């Protein structure tokens, strides 16, 4: 018998150990895959209306447990209670949205000579879902809900640091009547459990959300079995503010577009690009907005930003703001225990400064001026990332031109919204591959089968 691999789950706002979770090893992973493979044979045959009913029951169980799920995320990930409630509600909404899918997974009938031709959207099999620590609930739900709806079975590997809400979702699924083996939650280490999803021949699809570095390794390894993969990776998104915009609103909202979830958001607008003619005006409006961000106890209803996830991550974030860095101004953060880091604005920055080019994944934003529309697009697109972005202007034509010109998957005009469960989400360039949410996600969990039926005598 080998010793169990125990992981202490830490509250990032207090540094206290909340609980201990046993991490699965290779043998447990293989056993989970075998269960999922066996369950697939029956789950895919559950009548569409019954699969839909079970998913609606699952959504209802999540709905009834929202306060508990939110409290778990406040404690485990340091998310503000307001955000955590939204996240639990988002998990419910996503499951409910895809509960409608089993009865609407239409194929096509294609005109051909000599018979009829129909297509079927077949499930793929066992899906392995690898989740990062920054949004444990929504990211798990975005994959598991459409995958289950399409008739696949699912194993979710939460991030080592944040397993608690995923484990709870697994319990709620069972309580709602989803059969054993259809959805399993398997806490474990990335290079052990996550890697096994990639190498195990019975895992037929991998969904990975996390860093671009690990995503590339997973994509390369999946090639050995021609295993399809959905990747949601990093970002370095631009918030482009034109001189004709509602500057007060653009400045008041900019901090929340990057400091929300303490900047640990793949869609964080961590590069603010401001038309040169209004640069000083914008900075004057931005300063009080940044200083006004309420950083503190995430369980307090008034708090707007909590701690970073870990001491190691705080050290990484701090490395982008070395002594002598061009800090224009910054907000506050509590002293004492907890992995706190204040909202920080860097300006001016050179265009080769790592703070301007690399994903920091913390509450640090850079602000740079641009000359005109072409210059704004040049700067916005001078990155290998392409996840999201915002455009602030009152000129509708410009809003559309710039939206079409920015190489990113999720843009918003005069707002910072990236995610709606009814609309597709995903990255351009090295920010990802494939789309989650909305009608598009089902494509990632089905394969098209074409059947020709001869009508000749
Ligand atoms: P990470 O890549 O270190 O880890 C993500 C997950 O992968 C974890 O569950 C980890 O255990 C697992 N993992 C690590 N090594 C592995 C391996 N060799 N094989 C298989 N699995 C492995 O990322 P992180 O630090 O947890 O998350 C932060 C990153 O996630 C950021 O870059 C962020 O931008 C990205 N992210 C992207 C999106 C999106 O939708 N595009 C959403 C959230 C986070």
Automatic annotation (TrEMBL):
PROSITE patterns the UniProt entry points to: ALDEHYDE_DEHYDR_CYS, ALDEHYDE_DEHYDR_GLU
UniProt key word Oxidoreductase: yes
Active site: 232
Domain Aldehyde dehydrogenase: 7-451
SUPFAM superfamilies, per the entry: ALDH-like
GO molecular function, one term: oxidoreductase activity, acting on the aldehyde or oxo group of donors, NAD or NADP as acceptor
InterPro entries: Ald_DH/histidinol_DH, Ald_DH_C, Ald_DH_CS_CYS, Ald_DH_CS_GLU, Ald_DH_N, Aldehyde_DH_dom
Alphabetic keyword roster: Oxidoreductase
Highest taxon, organism lineage: Bacteria
PANTHER family, A to Z: ALDEHYDE DEHYDROGENASE-RELATED
Annotated family: Belongs to the aldehyde dehydrogenase family.
Record-given protein name: Aldehyde dehydrogenase
Organism, as annotated: Streptomyces rubellomurinus (strain ATCC 31215)
């Amino acid at each position: 018998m080998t010793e169990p691999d125990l992981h202490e789950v830490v509250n990032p706002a207090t540094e206290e150990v909340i609980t201990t979770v046993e991490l699965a090893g290779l043998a447990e992973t293989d056993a989970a895959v075998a269960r999922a493979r066996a369950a697939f044979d029956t789950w895919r045959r559950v009548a569409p209306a019954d699969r839909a009913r079970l998913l609606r029951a699952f959504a209802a169980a999540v709905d009834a447990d929202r306060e508990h799920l939110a409290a778990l995320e406040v404690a485990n990930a340091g998310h503000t209670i307001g955000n955590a409630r939204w996240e639990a509600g988002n998990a419910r909404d996503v499951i409910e949205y895809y509960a409608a899918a089993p009865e609407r997974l239409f194929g096509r009938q294609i005109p051909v000579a000599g018979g009829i031709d129909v297509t079927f959207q077949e499930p793929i099999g066992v899906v392995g879902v690898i989740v990062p620590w920054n949004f444990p609930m929504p990211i798990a739900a975005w994959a598991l809900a459409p995958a289950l709806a399409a008739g696949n079975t699912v194993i979710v590997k939460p991030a080592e640091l944040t397993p608690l809400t995923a484990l709870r979702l697994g319990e709620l699924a069972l309580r709602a009547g989803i059969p054993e083996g259809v959805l399993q939650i398997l806490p474990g280490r990335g290079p052990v459990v996550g890697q096994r999803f990639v190498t195990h021949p019975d895992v037929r699809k991998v969904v990975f959300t996390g860093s671009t570095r690990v995503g590339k390794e997973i994509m390369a390894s999946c090639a050995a079995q021609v295993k399809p993969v959905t990747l949601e990776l990093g970002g370095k998104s631009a918030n482009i503010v034109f001189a004709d915009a509602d500057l007060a609103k653009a400045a008041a909202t900019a901090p929340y577009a990057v400091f929300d979830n303490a900047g640990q958001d793949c869609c964080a607008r961590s590069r603010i690009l401001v038309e040169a003619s209004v640069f000083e005006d914008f900075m004057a409006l931005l300063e009080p907005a940044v200083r006004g961000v309420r950083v503190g106890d995430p369980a307090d209803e008034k708090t707007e930003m909590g701690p970073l996830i870990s001491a190691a991550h705080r050290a990484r974030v701090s490395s982008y703001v070395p002594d002598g860095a061009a800090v224009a101004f910054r907000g506050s953060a509590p002293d004492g225990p907890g992995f706190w880091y204040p909202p920080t604005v860097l300006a001016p920055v050179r265009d080769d400064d790592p703070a301007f080019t690399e994903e920091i994944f913390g509450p640090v934003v850079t602000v740079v001026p641009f000359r005109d529309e072409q210059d704004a697009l040049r700067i916005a697109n001078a990155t290998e990332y392409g996840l999201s972005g915002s455009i602030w202007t009152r000129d509708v034509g410009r809003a559309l031109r710039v939206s079409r010109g920015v190489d990113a998957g999720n843009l918003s005009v005069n707002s910072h919204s990236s995610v709606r469960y009814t609309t597709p989400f995903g990255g351009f360039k090295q920010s990802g591959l494939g789309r989650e949410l909305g009608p598009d996600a089902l494509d990632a969990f089905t394969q098209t089968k074409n059947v020709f039926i001869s009508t000749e005598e």
